[in-house]
C-alpha cells in the first residue's frame, strides 16, 4: 500500500500556532473550503547537489481542507477533513526527457488505480487545543507530525521521538529537527571500528511563511549524507523537499452538528480507523524472485578456488550474504549439504558472515566439531566469527557451549577459545560487557589462564586474552611475562603490547623494566626487546629511556644492533617518545660514537604506505637475528589511521629458535636449552589468529628438511566481510530510505622459512594476496516506484616480503625486499529508477586507473649484499621452510 498518504499533514498542523506564541487551534473558519497545493520530491546523488546528476521523483497534488465539526462547548476541539486531488508523479530530473520512466503514463497506471483511490480518500484530523489527538483514515494511510512554537521540545512525529527547536521571526517560523536524536524502531547495524566505519549526517529544516498571523506556505528540506571513512569516494546523499502553499479559500459545506466527535466520525464513514503517528516499517514484496538455491547456483561459479584472487568473487560473496540474511534455516542447510568440497569453504564464509539466527543455526547443525574430517570448514567458520562485523550474544554463547564439548581436533578447540576472546572484545566495545555470555567468557578465559596446568592450555588462554584485552587480565600477564618460560613469557609480553596506553601504568612498566634489564632472571632476546618496545611506546620517563640507552653496548651483538635501530626509528619517524629520547641524548655519556656505532644485521624500520590529510597507512618491519646469523624473529605490521582511530590491519610474525646446533654455533645467553622450533603468528584486522607451526623439535626439523617441497604454509585464507553498515531511514515526507555499505575481501596470507646448510643461507618469505570490493547504496522506495544509487570500488593487490641472510661471515650479509605490485583500481556508479510495472531507467559509469607498484625502504643502512630490486621473485623450485 502507498505510504505517501497524508504526507502534507506534516505541514498543515503548523496552522495550530500563531506567531504571537499562543495556541488557538487551526484557526479554520466555519463553512469555508481551503484549497492548497502540495508537492514532495526526493533525489539521490553523490553529494554534489546537482539535480541533473541525480535520480528521484516528485509527487504533487491539490489539497482541499474543510472544518467538519467544532465542539459547541469549546472552539479548540475540532475535526478537520483533508482530501488529496489530482495526484501527479514526475521525474525530479527535468533533463530526462524521452528516457523518463513516467513518460506517457497517467497516475492510475503509475500508482495503480486501487492505490490512487485509497490515497485520494479523505483523511480526518482530530485536534484539541492545537494538539493532534488522533489521525483517522482508511487503514494503510499514514504519517503526521506535531508542531509546537517557541523553544526546544521532545515530540513524537513521523521520524520518531525527536528533539525539535522552533525559532519565531517576524514573518516566518523556522523548525530544526535534530534527526540524530530521533528514537524510532528500525533495523540496522554498523562496524564498530571507525576506520572501517561509515560517517553519516542528517539535517532537517522547515520554514513556515506567516501572513496576518496565519501560515500561508511551508517549505521543508531534509538531507541524509554518508561517506566511508577510509575511502571517501564511497559516498551518497538523499535530499527530500516538501512544499505546501495556500492558493484560495471559497464557500464550503456547513458544520456537522453534534457534541461527541466519535458520533460525527461514524456518521462520516464507519470504516475510519486511528492511524499511527510514527512511521511504520514495511517490506516490499518480491513476487517471482529466485530462491536461495537459485541465487547460489549463479554465485558459486565465482567462488571456485581459482577465482578467489578476483574482485568479482568478493562482489558475489557480498551479494549472496544479502540473500542469506532473508533466508530460512532449512534453505541454508539444504545448500550446505549439497555443495562440493571445493566451494564449501567459501559457502561457510558467506553463511557465517550473514550473522542471522537462521544462518547460525544452520551452520552449527552442519558442522560436526567431534569429527576431524572437516577441520578446514570448522576453522573457516571460527575465523568468520572472529571477523564478525556486529556479533551478538547468541554467537558467543554458541562458542562457549562448543568449547565445553568434545573435539576431534585440538587445534579447533584452541581456535574456539581464541575467537571467543575476539567476540568478548567486540561486544564490550558495543557496551555489552555486562551480558551474561560475556561475563561467562571472561571467567572462562581468566580462570582458565590462572589454573592452566599444561603449556598448551596456557598458550591458548593467553592468545584468547590477546584478543579480549581484558584490563583485569593484566596482573596475570605480568606474572607470566616475568616468571614464565620462554614462549609463554614472550606471548604474555606481546599480549601486553596490544593494550592501550592508559593500561600501561607505572606498575606495569616496573615489571617490564625488570624483564628488560634481567633484574630477577635471564630472559630470551625476544622477550627483552618486546618489553623495551612497550616501555618506549607508552610515555616513557626520562630514567626509563636513559637506562635503556645505557644498556646498548652491554647487550648481545645482534640485540645491541636491534635496540639501536629501534631508538633511531623512533627519532626518524617522530614517534611520541622521540622528544624524551632527544632530551636524554643531550647527555654525552649516552650519545657517543662507541654506543651508536655497533655493527650487526638486526633492524627496525617504520614508514608510510600512504599518507593523506585525513588518513595514513603505515608499515613497520623489525628483524632480530641470533648471534650466529639465524633469524630469531621477523615482525611485519601494517596499521591504518583515520583521525584518532586506528586499525591493526595485519601482523605477520615468523619466529625461530634452537637452530644453532645445525651450524655448530654457540647460542646466545639465556637460549642455550631451547628446542628447535619455527612458526608463524598473525593478527588480521585486530584479530589474533591461531599460530602455525613449521616444525617443533629436532626430529621434526630433520624430517621436514628431507621432505621439504618449498611450498608456503597458509596462515589464513578465505572471504571476509570487512565493512558492514545498514541503516533504515524514515523520511519526514513519509517515504522510506535505506543506506547500506558492505565491503569484503578474499585474502591469502602465507609464509615460509627456508634454510640451506650447504649455502649457509636462510630465507623468510611472507605473501599477502587480497581482492577487495566495496559497495555503497542508497534507495528510496514506495510501493509503486523505487530510485537508487550504487557506488562501488574494487581492486586486487599483493604485498610480498623476502629476507635473505648469508651467515658464512660476520657481520651477516642481508638482503631485504618488500614489494607492492601495481594495483588496478576500478570505480563504478549505477543510478536507476524503476516502476513496479517493470519500466525502468539505468545509468552506469566506470572509471579505472592503475596505481603503480611501490618500493619500501626496510633498513636504515645500505646492504652490501644486494641492491634491492622491487619486483616479485620467482618461486623457488627446491628447498623447504627451514
TrEMBL record:
It holds the Pfam family MTP_lip_bd. GO terms for molecular function: cholesterol transfer activity; lipid binding; phosphatidylethanolamine transfer activity; triglyceride transfer activity. Keywords: Disulfide bond, Endoplasmic reticulum, Lipid transport, Signal, Transport. The keyword Signal applies. It catalyses: a 1,2-diacyl-sn-glycero-3-phosphocholine(in) = a 1,2-diacyl-sn-glycero-3-phosphocholine(out); a 1,2-diacyl-sn-glycero-3-phosphoethanolamine(in) = a 1,2-diacyl-sn-glycero-3-phosphoethanolamine(out); a cholesterol ester(in) = a cholesterol ester(out); a triacyl-sn-glycerol(in) = a triacyl-sn-glycerol(out). Its main location: endoplasmic reticulum. One of its GO terms (biological process) is cholesterol homeostasis. Residues 28-651 form the Vitellogenin domain. Residues 1-17 form the signal peptide. GO terms for cellular component: basolateral plasma membrane; endoplasmic reticulum; Golgi apparatus. The keyword Protein biosynthesis does not apply. It is found in: Endoplasmic reticulum. Catalyzes the transport of triglyceride, cholesteryl ester, and phospholipid between phospholipid surfaces. Required for the assembly and secretion of plasma lipoproteins that contain apolipoprotein B. May be involved in regulating cholesteryl ester biosynthesis in cells that produce lipoproteins. Heterodimer; heterodimerizes with the protein disulfide isomerase (P4HB/PDI). Interacts with APOB. Interacts with PRAP1. This is Microsomal triglyceride transfer protein large subunit. The lineage of its organism: Eukaryota, Metazoa, Chordata, Craniata, Vertebrata.
